[in-house]
Amino acid sequence: MSRLWELLLMPIATLFFLDPEGGAQTTLHCVLQEGLEPLSGRYFSNCAVARVSSKGRDDALAKKLWEVSERLAGI
Predict the structure, then answer these.
(1) Which residues form the signal peptide (predicted)?
(2) Given Cys at both, which of 2, 5, 18, 73 links 23, Cβ 3.0 to 4.6 Å?
């Protein structure tokens, strides 16, 4: 049965997920590209500076997530 799922899901999964090489591209770009130091701390996507989503900029949501994470981690 797992082979059947693999045959059915893999073509769909390739539309939504990157392979390991593709997934590493932005990280490697940021590490290896000279001159990016002034952009330290910025969000990158597809090897370029990108705007953080509204949820990513929501301080109240970030605080809630932090508190839930602490509770789940037992801190």
Answers:
(1) 1-24
(2) 18
